[in-house]
Amino acid sequence: MSAHVSNSAEPKVVCVTGAAGQIAYSLLFNIARGDIYGPNQRVILHLLDIAPMMEALQGVVMELQDCSLPLLAGVEATSDPKVAFNNADAAILVGAMPRKEGMERKDLLRANAKIFKEQGDALNTVAKPSVKILVVGNPANTNALITLLHATSLPKENFSALTRLDHNRAIAQVALRVGVSVEKVRNVIIWGNHSSTQYPDVNHGEVEVGGQRKKIKDVIADEAWLHGDFIKTVQSRGGAIIKARKLSSAMSAAKAIVDHMHDWIQGTPEGEFVSMGVHSTGVYGIPAGLIYSFPVTCKNGTYTIVEGLPIDVFSRTKMTETADELVSEREDANQILSA
Ligand SMILES: NC(=O)c1ccc[n+]([C@@H]2O[C@H](COP(=O)([O-])OP(=O)(O)OC[C@H]3O[C@@H](n4cnc5c(N)ncnc54)[C@H](O)[C@@H]3O)[C@@H](O)[C@H]2O)c1
Ligand SMILES: O=C(O)CC[C@H](O)C(=O)O
Q: What CDD domains does UniProt report for this protein, alphabetically (predicted)?
């Protein structure tokens, strides 16, 4: 059965880098069936990967055609970032090496920093001023910062890093603990870096039990768990998946990418906030200029950091710890890129 699709609106151009990789393999179908822009908006996919992957990428293009999706108005596969980013409304930067068991974060930065410098330069030259950029490739926050610093003609508010996967992981852990389904849990926060220093915080979160909305911390009523195993589980979930699968998370990463872009473009429900890695303006005492994960609401294609939440001593220590890691990653990136 095919849905009725209005042909009147111009198709949105969505660029996905790392398009022959495993996250993209879970992601592209969802974008092409309308999960980001909605059921009445056609999309054109621009797929970027490196030259040696072009044959594999052609296979992905064939599969997208074979999905026979009414919203998919075109697919362009290329190894040239300037072709890929040209005219893009959204650019999802997945293409980067994933961490393997035994690899440290700095090894990853060394392997991936140059990709984001090159892609920042390309975005600077060809991107639409309104392009929405989501960096997924790790270390995602610092790669987003590198991209932003090389795409100086674009507003800083166009750049983001994926921490929605961590946000979804935190919601899932709370839902499992309370014994409710995930849609009953809202307003958890991931502060800081998409790394093991991130701070998953439930102090402002709510869970619906017995038809009533209550504070997560009151319902769980176990500070040792909330400050201990809960935080550890969310912080180390990516590593646990690598250990088990011998591959980095992909299905859940693709779902989180869709959630992030959908909410940024379509808006967050009234009274709800989500976590996005965005440019810090110095709010909550976080050094300005970092790409740091904050609670945000989204409306009319714009995100707004939720300000004024009370921060207790435990939270402050955790928020500073993850900010310190980002400051140190920024120094490492500068060193690597100037070598
Ligand atoms: N932020 C998050 O929540 C999150 C979650 C999961 C994975 N990740 C990260 O996403 C990245 C991709 O993961 P994956 O599992 O899809 O990896 P993968 O190895 O399966 O795919 C990566 C793809 O990127 C391509 N690539 C490499 N250099 C490129 C370049 N310069 N331009 C375009 N494409 C390029 C590769 O050829 C490959 O096809 C990794 O860095 C991983 O750590 C982030
Ligand atoms: O390299 C890691 O430990 C994390 C990989 C990925 O970003 C994830 O969160 O699943």
A: MDH_cytoplasmic_cytosolic
Distance CA 296, CA 303 (A): 6
Ligand 2 proximal residues by C-beta, below 6 Å: 99, 138, 165, 238-239, 241-242, 248-249
CA-nearest residue, atom 7 of ligand 2: 238
Tell me the residue type at 133.
I
Q: Which option is the CATH number for 164-329: 3.90.110.10, 2.60.120.10, 2.60.120.380, 3.40.50.300?
A: 3.90.110.10
Is the N-terminal amide bond of 139 cis, ω within 30° of 0?
Answer: yes
212 bridge partner residues: 209
pLDDT in tens, 26-73: 999 999 999 999 999 999 999 999 999 999 999 999 999 999 999 999
Q: Evaluate whether ipTM surpasses 0.85.
A: yes
> Which pair of structure tokens corresponds to residue 233?
């589980």
Tokens of 335: 């060193």
**Residue 245, annotated ligand binder?**
no
Alpha-carbon gap, residue 32 to 14, rounded angstroms: 9
Dump pLDDT digits (tens) for 177-205. Answer: 999 999 999 999 999 999 999 999 999 99
As assigned by CATH, the class of the 12-161 domain is alpha beta
Structural domain boundaries of the chain? 12-161, 164-329
Pocket of ligand 1 (CB under 6 A): 17-18, 20-23, 48-50, 53, 94-99, 115, 136-138, 140, 162, 165, 194, 248-250, 253
User: Which residue has 């309104």 as its token pair?
Assistant: 130
